[in-house]
Each structure stands twice: as C-alpha cells, then as structure tokens.
Amino acid sequence: MGKMEGTIKSEILRFAKREVRAAFLPLKREVWAMRLKLSGLSKGVAILNRQAKELRLEEAKPKLEVSPEEVKTSRLTPERIRNLRKKKGLSQRELAIITGVTTGAVLSWEKGKFKPKGDKKAALLALRKVNKRDLKKMLAEKIGGRAKPKPATGKGKKPKAKRRSRM
Where are the beta strands (DSSP E) in the chain? Predict the structure, then answer.
C-alpha cells in the first residue's frame, strides 16, 4: 500500500504543479507587461518634471525686454549709457557680457563713436528696469554659461634646451 500512496502523492503533486503553472504563466506575462508600462510612465514623468523645472527657472529669470515704440522714441547719449552703467554698478566688461557685445563696443558707445542699434539698444533700455540683484544673477548666469578660454597649445615659443656643461 505504501507504493500506491507514494504514486498518488506524486501524481497529485504533478497535477498541482501543472495547474499552478497554468494559472501562473498568464499572471507572469501580465506583471511583465505592467512593469514595462510602469517603466515607460516613470521615464515620461521624469522628463515632464525636468521640463517643468526648466520652465520654472525660465520664469524666474529676469528678462531684458522693452517695447519697440520705446526703442524708437528713446535717445541714448554716451553720458546716459555711462551713467546707467555706473548706477547699476557694472564695469564695461560686465555691461558688454549682459548686452552681448564686446568691451570695445561699450567703450565706443560711451565715447560717442558709435550708437547702439536694434536689440543692443533695447537691452540697454531694458537695463533701466532691472534691479541690481537681478542684474548680478543674469551676469553670473551668462558668465557661467560662457565657454572657458582654452589653454595655450604651446605653438609659440619652444622651451629652451638644457645645455650640458663641458669640462
């Protein structure tokens, strides 16, 4: 009777495993599909969070904008440009970075050799409306975003060769 009992137990176990496998495989496939969906959704949420953060940062940035009518009607003299720069506590270099020109251009504006035109004039006019704290933030952001100067490649002078002393 012992052998029959073992055989019945093994058959029951075999049928039970088959039934479990039959119920488990579709569930396993469903779980796998849900994991794939979850992975895609979490990647999408991460992208949306990054975009939302960038938009919040863009909104917080002070912008140099002024109406076209104001650009046409305003007159910027060399003295006004210099006074604006000094009032805002900027050097010529810093003003050049903020407006997107060279330091020489700012110097020429302040000496009266050239007048700022177009978007440069608009940027100068918009500077009047920006406070010093926001101006410093803009400056730090623009300096941080600029490319670092490349180190010398060594194409100029060659290093002197060491001489051996003759004895």
Answer: none
